[in-house]
What we know:
Elements: E1 21-23, H1 36-44, H2 53-64, H3 70-85, H4 88-102, H5 108-117, E2 130-132, H6 141-163, E3 171-172, E4 175-176, E5 188-191, E6 198-202, E7 211-216, E8 219-224, H7 235-247, H8 265-275, H9 279-290, E9 294-298, H10 306-319, E10 336-341, E11 346-350, H11 357-373, E12 388-389, H12 396-415, E13 416-423, H13 428-433, H14 438-454, E14 460-465, E15 474-478, H15 482-491, H16 498-520, H17 526-539, H18 550-556, E16 560-564, E17 572-574, E18 583-589, E19 594-601, H19 609-634
Amino acid sequence: MLGLFVRTALxxxxxxxxxxxxxxxxxxxxxxxxxxxxxxxxxxxxxxPVPPLRQTCERYLAMLEPIVSEEELEQTQQMxxxxxxxxxxxxxxxxxxxxxxxxxxxxxxxxxxxxxxxxRMPVAVYTSPGIVxxxxxxxxxxxxxxxxxxxxxxxxxxxxxxxxxxxxxEYLGGKPLCMDQYYQILSSCRIPGPKxxxxxxxxxxxxxxxxxxxxxxxxxxxxxxxxxxxxxxxVDQISMQLEKIWNSSLQTNKEPIGILTSQHRNTWxxxxxxxxxxxxxxxxxxxxxxxxxxxxxxxxxxxxxxNLYRSRVAAQMLHGGGARWNSGNRWFDKTLQFIIGEDxxxxxxxxxxxxxxxxxxxLIDYVxxxxxxxxxxxxxxxxLAMPLKLRFNITPEVxxxxxxxxxxxNMMSQDLDVNVLMFSHFGRTxxxxxxxxxxxxxxxxxxxxxxxxxxxxxxxxxxxxxRMFKYGRTDVIHSTTKDSLKFVQAxxxxxxxxxxxxxxxxxxxxxxxxxxxxxIHGQAIDRHLLGLKLQGIIDLTSMPEIFMxxxxxxxxxYNLLTSQVGSKTDCAMCFGPMVPxxxxxxxxxxxxxxxxAITAFNSCEETHAARFSRAIEDALLDMRALLExxxxxxx
Length: 635
């Protein structure tokens, strides 16, 4: 369940929205078009609780045990006693509880700002996840455009669920989940600002978005997807319109204006203001921002071997391959960008501020299912207007900004190390037969792989969904525990019998499942500590010592950023590491295999995505052998 994460670098800010735009930098108000049943569902959701202070402090100390030294832990324990008994902790807790009473969700606005909108790092690679879909085999250009037309029709069919409020409510453990994020992913866009970004959502109402943006050869087009009667265009009609776009964008000597959106957010904010000084540019940018979503028709990438194909496509989804290839064929601020290459590569990249992974994965599954079932109906040959080509006036200042963005994107794309492991030996079915949680099992394999490579444990972030609560986003499951440490140490000790190793594995899995349950029920520690810290910044003249402690810095330096994204589609989601010396690991357990995408930075000599991928594969196989040995012993 991919969610947001506070990175160790920085994000931007404010553009006055037009009257048909809904800013969502704060806790989103319920989507105005919700029908009474949906509104009732949302209103009945519980508020996110503020966990008990002492409980969080005790769990925080327990979480530190496997990742800090005894001396550091002892020092933190002393600080914690002062924090709890000196009155500061109680004071901040009471203020946080008061905030929780007054707001619909005490965390959402703070989290949106601190995790996304205040961050200054580029959204490409650093925050926007990509999804790799199975490879298509187009026979010709028409095959690519036909596929794109079906995909567009599928997304518009999904949009109908949003527009008519017929999207089914999701449940977890019999409890309804907050559906608000589904209403934020279409017709929305991030806007750069000098200190903080905003997200705008072009809602149903005064002027609903009726077009998508199509980009080919770095040139942007407005494609109206509804006819004059308000009916969706057919697949045939969309395909014909895409053909027109293709034919009118054959020139490749255009400036890749979209590459500006890949910049560091402060840099992009300045370039954005330069760009919008021109009236034509301003109108073109607004058209992209208002569109329902973006479709990127990509040029083919250099050929690679089959075993490297998915890894290369994952990189393509995250950054476009660099200025020479498709990085300029994007508008990275757009919440949803579907990518379809001439060579059969397909997937998407999404800007993370508006939503977590589950709504995006649901959309993917829906669209893939739609495309498999759709019957192409010949539509009457009603002449359709030529899609509008968006014009940009490239001043010397804008040209300089584009050249700067090209250089930075090339460095960024070369620095990202990506490896997609298609683990084919077993999947959910095998783990179900052994009564083992797939998520916890993969997490323990990641722990074992890291320990084998580095001989230490590290802080590990696994995303937990808070959608049981109104406007809930995410919290953290800490996969590194005392029990996981004992398990990985035992696995590296040849003197330990398998019976002991499998018992320790079961204990570690059980601890992980308990931590997962606490997190999704609003009893994790990371967001509570963040709330106390932010409340302290607002209320106190000085920061509480506990947040300036070495242990706190260590705990927040997540060398492993991980997430499970369960999709019915045989896809792989990927995202960049959270820290310069870390890994991003995202996995999708299917019935008989597991898709695992791993990223690292080439600029860090200690990390290596392919090596870590092999270590995870070995760990999974060794752990499978343990389960099989246990079963044999029972027989």
